Write a sequence for this structure.
């Protein structure tokens, strides 16, 4: 009887540990983008003056959330990562090159990237709204779409906020 | 009296707070490679050796694509808050200035004095040259463009920024469209690297070249020994010590040291002097000229500048 209880306790502990791990993975995937930077992005070409086209993926518990996350990811990539894959025509260098700038200006970026935040002013769908949808698990979706990023306007916003310097500032 | 003192103090405060470093000038020019490949060159005989140099004026007058590309780059740089010197206007200005200098005279009939060096320095020039090269690649019916921008420091000869790449091949695309796309694709990466160069400039000082030279009528050369600050040193070594004390973190390297010429490279001069005023090579070197003018040296010397980035001190005469 005692050994049966012990066996049950061990199984419960194992199940609890695994569920914790899975939920953490899911949480990370959902938050991928502004927090972990773990997302895929590729260049689709040059847009009009001051814009570039990218295909970016987002994760979420439903396709809507994943699509929403992908917008954040697109703006995040232009600011902090640069676009180094895909077709030619995008900025390979990020707008912010100072190491640790994301942490240094944490308050600004937390506000900037809040749901419905100012980042939405610099990103828009570049096509008729068609998206690529992949169901990763029963609770997780990966959604990819082509976005247009207004990187010149984004640079001006960051210059105005004092995050990056204006070209030739100080002369 | 009080008012005057306050005004002077206000001016000093203003100049300290709002002092701005001397702004380098930038100009886009087609590369030698592009000019030679497209036949826009002039050949002249320099003491028996035939030399080929690019003919910018001819290139701009004949190549609409080139003119459009330079115009596009100028516009985009201007939008980003850094207007460039326009090559075509600079060439015209140089020609007009030459005509005006040769024709101008005073009421009494005196002409303007100009020596060959003044004429040479009147050429269209900039501190940073943005060299532009492009090639249209044809692969069957598809065309693509290979585009290259190089930011070259006119004095240190270093490439300080660059962006290059080949665009997506496409069918039936016109050259101006390809060129415009290439400029749009590369200008921001180029600017990002240019900004990194400016950041380095503000942190580590402006990199310049300095040469100490001697006129043939000079009573001394650079190996003349002086007793200075309880040390027996050659004039060249005294100059070297002065540079070490007056550069950002003592950064410079001596590339040539002879009795007649000492060439210092990678000399990092501060952007502001000790009073907070914008510094340039002439202002920076003035103290050395004054030092050599005093005892125990008592030497007359001449400062000769070549733009923002190179300066010579020629000892012996003015």
């Amino acid at each position: 009887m005692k050994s049966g209880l012990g066996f049950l306790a061990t199984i419960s502990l194992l199940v609890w540990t695994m569920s914790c791990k899975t939920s953490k993975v899911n949480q990370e995937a959902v938050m991928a983008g502004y927090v972990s930077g773990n997302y895929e992005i590729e260049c689709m070409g040059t847009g009009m003056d001051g814009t570039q086209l990218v295909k970016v993926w987002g994760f979420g518990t439903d396709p809507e959330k994943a699509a929403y996350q992908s917008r954040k990811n697109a703006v995040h990539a232009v600011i902090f990562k640069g676009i180094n894959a895909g077709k030619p025509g995008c900025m390979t260098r990020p707008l912010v090159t100072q190491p640790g700038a994301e942490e240094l200006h944490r308050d600004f970026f937390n506000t900037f990237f809040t749901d419905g935040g100012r980042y939405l002013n610099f990103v828009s769908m570049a096509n008729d709204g068609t998206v690529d949808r992949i169901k990763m698990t029963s609770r997780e979706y990966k959604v990819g779409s082509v976005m247009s990023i207004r990187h010149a306007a984004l640079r001006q916003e960051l210059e105005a906020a004092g995050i990056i310097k204006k070209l030739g500032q100080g002369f | 009296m009080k008012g005057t003192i306050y005004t002077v103090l206000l001016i000093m405060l203003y100049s300290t707070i709002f002092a701005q470093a001397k702004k380098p000038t930038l100009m886009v020019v087609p590369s030698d490679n592009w000019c030679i490949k497209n036949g826009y060159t002039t050949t002249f005989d320099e003491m028996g050796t035939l030399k080929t140099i690019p003919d910018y004026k001819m290139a701009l007058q004949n190549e609409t694509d080139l003119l459009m590309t330079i115009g596009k780059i100028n516009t985009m740089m201007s939008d980003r808050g850094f207007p460039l010197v326009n090559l075509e206007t600079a060439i015209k200005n140089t020609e007009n200035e030459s005509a005006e200098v040769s024709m101008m005279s005073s009421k009494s009939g005196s002409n303007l004095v100009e020596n060959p060096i003044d004429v040479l320095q009147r050429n269209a020039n900039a501190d940073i040259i943005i060299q532009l090269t492009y090639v249209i690649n044809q692969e069957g019916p598809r065309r693509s463009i290979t585009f290259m921008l190089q930011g070259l420091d006119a004095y240190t000869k270093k490439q300080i920024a660059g962006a290059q790449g080949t665009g997506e091949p496409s069918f039936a695309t016109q050259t101006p469209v390809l060129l415009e796309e290439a400029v749009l694709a590369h200008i921001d990466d180029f600017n990002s690297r240019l900004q990194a160069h400016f950041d380095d400039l503000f942190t580590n000082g402006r990199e310049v070249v300095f040469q100490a030279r001697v006129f043939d009528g000079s009573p001394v050369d650079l190996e003349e020994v002086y007793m200075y600050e309880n040390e027996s040193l050659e004039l060249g070594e005294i100059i070297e010590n002065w540079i070490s004390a007056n550069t950002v973190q003592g950064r410079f390297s001596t590339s040539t040291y002879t009795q007649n010429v000492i060439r210092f490279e990678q000399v990092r001069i501060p952007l502001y002097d000790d009073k907070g005023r914008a510094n340039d090579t002439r202002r920076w070197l003035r103290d050395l000229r004054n030092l050599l003018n005093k005892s125990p040296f008592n030497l007359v010397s001449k400062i000769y500048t070549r733009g923002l980035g190179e300066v010579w001190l020629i000892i012996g005469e003015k």
